[in-house]
Amino acid sequence: MSQLHFLNVGTSIFYEDLKLQNQKVSQVNWSPLAGGDPSLIEALDFLSQDERVKTANEKAISIVLAGHPYLVDMGLAKDMIEGFHENLILYAGPPIRWDQMCGPMQGAVIGALLFEKKAKNAQEAKALAASGQIEFAPAHHYNAVGPMAGVISASMPVSVVLNKTFGNKAYCTVNEGLGKVLRFGAYDETVITRLNWIKEELLPVMKATVLSYEEGIDLKSLIAQALQMGDECHNRNKAATSLFFREVVPAILKTPFEKDHLERVIRFIQNNDHYFLNLSMPAAKSIMEAAHGIPYSTLVTTMARNGVDFGLRVSGMGKQTWFVAPANFVEGLLFAGFSDQDANPDLGDSTITETCGIGGFAMGASPAITQFVGGNVEDAMAYTNSMFKITMKENSSFALPALNFVGTPTGIDVIKVVKRGILPIINTGIAHKEAGIGQIGAGVVTPPMACFHLALKACHTQYKEN
Fold it and tell me: Cβ(426)–Cβ(389) under 8 Å?
């Protein structure tokens, strides 16, 4: 009689027993659909079969793939962002109160109030922030995004990105560089001095530079090229920043400013490998925001974190409807001298890049990023390949040479995430939990599955009633 080959599904105790008996056995890791939750299974059955959902998702993803962002202007937030006012401060992630904010975000708010000259010191800034006189809102509610703490105040320069296909705009501050910076909650004199320099010296030059382009600067083209040069445009932006630098320097030199002034601006961009991050983010935001508001769609248009909670928005739900759960901690490589106990939970709006199909979803194109976030080249490629299982289409505009020029997996579908039990992969920086210390490492993280469970149930309830 031929030897039996056993297939063990689920708990491994039987597998181990059969191995001890020298039996031929294979283990299959299995779990029930949606954890066996009847309400989630009912929602999956309904949404997966609803033709309105399928049609809406085809429309939503076609909008994403057709999006074409251009950098068209720069200016102060209060002048560029509709509805901005002097006492408004925007922050990264889903809604949160001042007293709930993590250390880095509170530090960034303090720095913003010092920069705006609304407070003379940190104590006055804290009192003002808690007084109710300052309005706080998620940057996403104003079509804006910010890395890490993500704070935007009235007098901060922002880049204006136009999705020319659909006419909507997105906004982001200028990347400050590394070290002690506002986005990590630092607010000492060096931080405020740098913010003032960006406002007083860099902004006039870069605004004149950008406006000298009749059509604006094509960010989609730069992202596509950078992906083919080893970037993934979230944690690695060396190629994208170099391409942007090469593009703008001739135009900068034609602006009517003193030579020394121009040299300082050029050196600032040249020495900041992350400069393009604050352009890839609003580029992705402008693409995804155009696809928000499609009735019956289950496309994820926003993933963001405030250092306490992780939140996502879904195209078919309201603009200010968030599905929120506690943010996870990032797993990766820490800088020397720091430990896991120093780390803040996941933080920032930069996950808009993954939402748009780049960042962690494009790690297969960026083997060098593994030296920064941990893992190896095979891991990076596996991350990208696994994301095809939870997305709607591949984006042929963003081709990945290392994967035989396949397009990036794009358009996270709430249905597929819950049905397949696979979470979006995000590569990101790790912030110290205390304000002002800054970045202490980098790694990979996933959203909490609870966000997707909440979103699926809400879509089921709303779409079924309509």
Answer: no
